[in-house]
């Protein structure tokens, strides 16, 4: 398995860091990033992983305990937030789900498994002369032109362009950028990350003006094909908000859904976030989304990465 250069993502050798977790079955390790005053489980992929293999460097403190039900820190002043497939605290929410597709050995086998409706839309996209370009971080500029536009339309901030480049570079050959093009123009983009036999598309976007071309079907299919060619056995469509449009869209691909539990060491609350030197109480998400949609582009290009960093 290719060693991932985790520190490259954040440009600091001090993070992310590995911490020891004492369990009834022995010691395991978890990777956490300090975001403001909270240790957060690595957001790659949709959920964190407790691994048995000892990392090269493990922090001496703090140390965590997990009895199979409750996760705790030996330092009571430490705040943490874990994203797992099971709740590990009395404070959690479960509004997110992750959608998985078990993969066969060949793309042809997978294509035959799809419903006739999905196959028809993929074929129509191909007839609309959509082409695919696959590469590494050199394609992030094209990806970002689509992704940032779509995020603005949806009323959500995006991380900086360089952040996505660093993620792809950190994963090396296991980090891929896919661009859907029509007449040479980028109309869709995806970033797929791979660990062992597991591949997940962590960021995906298509231009709304080209939705009649079935761009999203074409691009998802190209991601699945690439995962199969690179010997993945599970493909993840990433996480969605339960019962959202994105969640329902993924069901037609024959996925299996699993609840994601975001557990906290503290009661859920409206947090104050330091943005551009100001300590701001974040309002209702619907209000934020509306304000973001109507903000001019030069504002979101400057403010977006600072806001996104607080939620990612």
Describe this structure in words.
The chain is an alpha+beta fold. It has two domains: 6-96 and 264-293, no CATH class; 104-232, Aminopeptidase, CATH 3.40.630.30. It has helices at 6-10, 107-113, 116-127, 140-154, 161-171, 215-229, 245-251, 285-294, 297-311; strands at 17-23, 26-35, 38-41, 64-66, 71-73, 79-84, 91-102, 131-135, 175-182, 185-195, 198-206, 234-241, 256-264, 272-275, 278-281. The strands form two sheets. The chain has a 13-stranded mixed sheet with strand order 5-4-1-2-3-6-13-7-12-11-10-9-8, sandwiched between helices. α3 (116-127) crosses α6. The relative contact order is 0.17.
Short description:
The protein is α+β, with helices and mostly antiparallel strands and 312 residues long. It is built from 9 helices and 15 strands. It has 2 domains: 6-96 and 264-293, no CATH class; 104-232, 3-Layer(aba) Sandwich (Aminopeptidase), CATH 3.40.630.
Notable traits:
312 residues; alpha+beta; Aminopeptidase; 2 domains; 13-stranded mixed beta sheet; two-stranded antiparallel sheet; 9 helices
Largest sheet: 13 strands, mixed
Q: Whole-Å distance between the termini?
A: 26 Å
Walk across the major sheet and give the strand order.
5-4-1-2-3-6-13-7-12-11-10-9-8
| Percent strand | 25-35%
The CATH homologous superfamily name of the largest domain equals Gcn5-related N-acetyltransferase (GNAT)
Order of helices and strands: HEEEEEEEHHEHHEEEHEHEEEHH
The oligomerization state is single chain
Fraction in helix: 25-40%
CATH architecture of the largest domain: 3-Layer(aba) Sandwich
Radius of gyration: 20 Å
Secondary-structure-derived class: alpha+beta
Give the CATH topology of the largest domain: Aminopeptidase
| Low-pLDDT windows of residues | 272-295
């Amino acid at each position: 398995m290719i060693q991932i250069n985790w520190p490259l993502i954040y440009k600091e050798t001090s993070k992310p860091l590995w911490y020891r977790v004492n369990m009834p079955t022995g010691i395991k390790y978890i990777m956490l990033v300090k975001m403001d005053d909270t240790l957060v489980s690595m957001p790659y992929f949709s959920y964190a992983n407790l691994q048995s293999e000892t990392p090269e460097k493990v922090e001496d403190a703090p140390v965590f305990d997990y009895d199979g039900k409750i996760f705790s820190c030996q330092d009571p002043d430490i705040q943490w937030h874990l994203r797992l497939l099971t709740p590990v605290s009395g404070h959690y929410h479960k509004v997110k789900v992750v959608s998985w597709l078990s993969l066969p050995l060949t793309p042809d086998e997978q294509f035959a498994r799809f419903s006739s409706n999905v196959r028809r839309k993929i074929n129509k996209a191909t007839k609309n002369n959509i082409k695919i370009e696959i590469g590494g971080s050199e394609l992030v500029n094209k990806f970002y032109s689509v992704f940032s536009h779509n995020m603005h339309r949806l009323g959500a901030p995006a991380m900086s362009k360089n952040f996505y480049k660093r993620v792809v570079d950190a994963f090396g050959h296991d980090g891929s950028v896919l661009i859907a093009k029509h007449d040479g123009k980028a109309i869709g983009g995806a970033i797929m990350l791979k660990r062992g036999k597991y591949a997940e598309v962590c960021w995906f976007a298509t231009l709304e003006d080209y939705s009649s071309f079935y761009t999203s079907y074409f691009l998802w299919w190209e991601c699945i094909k690439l995962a199969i060619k690179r010997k993945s056995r599970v493909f993840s469509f990433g996480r969605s908000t339960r019962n959202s449009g994105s969640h329902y869209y993924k069901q037609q691909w024959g996925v299996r859904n699993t609840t994601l539990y975001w557990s906290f060491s503290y009661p859920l609350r409206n947090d104050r976030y330091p943005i551009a030197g100001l300590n701001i109480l974040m309002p209702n998400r619907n209000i934020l989304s509306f304000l973001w949609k109507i903000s001019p582009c030069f504002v979101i290009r400057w403010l977006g990465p600072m806001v996104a960093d607080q939620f990612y």
